[in-house]
Amino acid sequence: MRVDLNLFTVFEAIYNEGNLTKAANTLHITQPAISHSLAKLRGHFDDALFVRQGHQMTPTPLSKRLIHDVRNALATLNTTLLSNLEFIPENATNLFKIGLRDALESTCLPPLIEATQKTAPGIKIVSLRHNRKTMENDLSSGQVDLIIDVAQPVSELISRKQIISERLCVVSRKNNPNIKTVLDLETYLNMNHVVASYRASGAAIEDVELNRYGLNRNITLRCQHYFAACQVVSNTDLLLTIPESYAQLLKSKHSGLNIHAFPIESPSVDIHLYVNKMRSKEPEIEWLVSSILTLFQQTSSKPTTY
């Protein structure tokens, strides 16, 4: 039995959007056309494929088994069709969607935009706060083109390359009466701290490292953004432990801050670039990935003396 390949494009759109109307809008076709295509697929597989739950279309177990093969097949076809198309940066007008968290947006976007404005002035970039729980699905579905984040578990369908490795450091306000010349471990543990995290609870990377030595600190404030945490630190005696590049950025904008070495030996904070392996063969994605890898190899942080 022959199957129209367009039906699998519809299948992927419904899976990605979880809603027939949204899938229709994504494909720029009518909802009746989506419903008709879904009916054909249901008949072919003898399975509902998607079950309505409220406003959502929830995939059946069969759909969950099919989605990876469908995405790979569509990506392979797309790559084949694009293989002879050359990506010319200076003439490009592409829109790229990059998944970034708060702190990385501040440190990664400025050099990236500066570089791409010189080589591809016509492109546009959208920075999105991605969901780590769905990042693999978002990369496979094209909701984001690539993601820059700390180490996350991914399957063999996703390519992961380290682009940044940096140390943790500690930020305090200038003239903090609790800190003499060097911030030692005893002083660090005796002081109060602020943690910046989107999670309501859970250990930060510095707490994991302290716990390895049987040490704990007192966290007075937990907030969502590094910038807000830094504003608190600049007006109190609290300490903030963050990656070095963001600390240097904050200090360059705020003269009332000091940066100190983290008082114990700690692992580096490794930042990775994530991209779907099949999509990485598309000329424009290949160019963007290559540009980012080259950029951060050139601007990788060097050891700093505080």
Overview of this protein structure:
The model has no long low-confidence stretch (mean pLDDT 86). The strands form three sheets. A five-stranded mixed β-sheet has the order 4-3-5-12-6. It has a five-stranded mixed β-sheet with strand order 9-8-10-7-11. The chain is an alpha/beta fold and 306 residues long. Helix 2 crosses helix 3 (31-45). The chain is built from eleven helices and twelve strands. It has helices spanning 6-17, 20-27, 31-45, 61-82, 102-119, 135-141, 185-190, 205-212, 226-234, 244-253, 283-298; strands at 50-53, 56-59, 95-100, 124-128, 146-150, 158-166, 168-173, 192-196, 218-223, 239-243, 257-261, 269-276. Helices cover 43% and strands 22% of the residues. The chain has three domains: 6-82, Arc Repressor Mutant, subunit A (Orthogonal Bundle); 89-165 and 269-298, D-Maltodextrin-Binding Protein, domain 2; 168-261, D-Maltodextrin-Binding Protein, domain 2 (3-Layer(aba) Sandwich), CATH 3.40.190. The chain is elongated and about 75 Å long.
What's this, in brief?
The chain is of the alpha/beta class and 306 residues long. It has three domains: 6-82, Arc Repressor Mutant, subunit A, CATH 1.10.10; 89-165 and 269-298, Periplasmic binding protein-like II (D-Maltodextrin-Binding Protein, domain 2, 3-Layer(aba) Sandwich); 168-261, 3-Layer(aba) Sandwich (D-Maltodextrin-Binding Protein, domain 2). Helices cover 43% and strands 22% of the residues.
